[in-house]
Amino acid sequence: MRKFIVPLLVMSFLAAGASVQAREENPFITSKEIDLIKLLPPPPANDSLQTKAELSEILALQAARTPEMTARSQADASEEIWRFADVMGVKFKREQLPVFARFFQRVVDSEGAVVDTYKDIWKRPRPFMVSDQVKPVVKLSRSGAYPSGHATSGTLMGIVLANMVPEKRAEIMARAAEYANNRIICGVHYRSDIESGRITGTVIAARLQTRDDFNTGFIAARDELRGVLQLGAEPAEAK
Predict the structure, then answer these.
(1) Helix or strand or coil: residue 3?
(2) pLDDT digits (tens, 9 = 90+) for 84-118
(3) Which one of 59, 141, 148, 221 is CB 3.0 to 4.6 Å from 103, fit for a cystine?
(4) CA distances to 104, 124, 125, 202, 230 from 121, in Å
(5) pLDDT of residue 236
(6) pLDDT in the model for residue 96
(7) pLDDT tens figures, 184-227
(8) 212-228 and 98-122 helices cross at what angle (nearest 10)?
């Protein structure tokens, strides 16, 4: 009978480890905790004056789009914290920040876990689905346009990152705004999608700060980041 004890213990240990890892990889929050129906107005109707005005903005930006603007908006199609590297400096790299990377993956996953539910409820068509004059320069998505997931995640990432490095708050939040606006430049979102995404990202960031698991992860990720960037253990704002 004893020969079965060790394998059973090993299997139990592996199962427990897998369970812990699964919990760590989960988003911090989902649409069950945040009701966007109560926080956001419904998106403008396709034939509304607002949508027509927003479509005109997209077409004007499309006509003015330079190769540099196109390249920037295409690069920002990637939903990851490393898009802030141009603000954070050359040491801001995934391989140097493993704890930080895992933490921000959960942050980004939280955006999708909240927003995707409401995209499916509102089902706002993307601009190129409304007008064949719109020529997107990124991979097309036919998921609901409202609210913008990229604007949500960009705002959310910006707020969390700025709280870690308040010395760069202005630059970080300016980059977050550009990240969101690039979804209009690349032709896949309306202005109101972006504005609602910024609101949603701010709400998610505020709600996350009330959670113990988020705050524990935040401190560990912040300390690793500030150590790599040689900024000191604790931000001046926190003292």
Answers:
(1) helix
(2) 999 999 999 999 999 999 999 999 999 999 999 99
(3) 221
(4) 27, 9, 12, 21, 45
(5) 62
(6) 97
(7) 999 999 999 999 999 999 999 999 999 999 999 999 999 999 99
(8) 130
User: How many other CB atoms sit within 10 Å of the CB of residue 7?
Assistant: 9
Token pair of 101 as six digits: 């990377």
As a whole number of angstroms, the distance between CA 11 and CA 26 comes to 23
Tokens of 209: 């700060």
**Residue 202 burial by Cβ neighbours in a 10 Å radius (0-12, 13-18, 19+):** middle
- Domains in the chain with CATH codes: 67-233 (1.20.144.10)
Burial pattern 88-103, b for ≥16 Cβ within 10 A else e, equals beeebeeeebeebbeb
Check: CB of residue 229 under 8 Å from CB of residue 92.
Answer: yes
Nearest to 213 by CA among 82, 32, 31, 20: 20
Note whether 113 and 163 are within 8 A (CB). no
186: three-class secondary structure by DSSP:
coil
pTM: 0.88
Report CA 169 to chain centroid distance, whole Å.
17
Identify which of 92, 114, 122 has the alpha carbon closest to the alpha carbon of residue 206. 114
- CA dist 50 to 46, 56, 186, 190, 191, Å? 9, 10, 20, 10, 10
List phi, psi (to 5°) of 175. -65, -40
Total count of residues recorded for the chain: 239
Check if the beta carbon of residue 134 is closer than 8 Å to that of residue 128.
yes
Tell me the C-alpha distance between 205 and 151, whole Å.
13
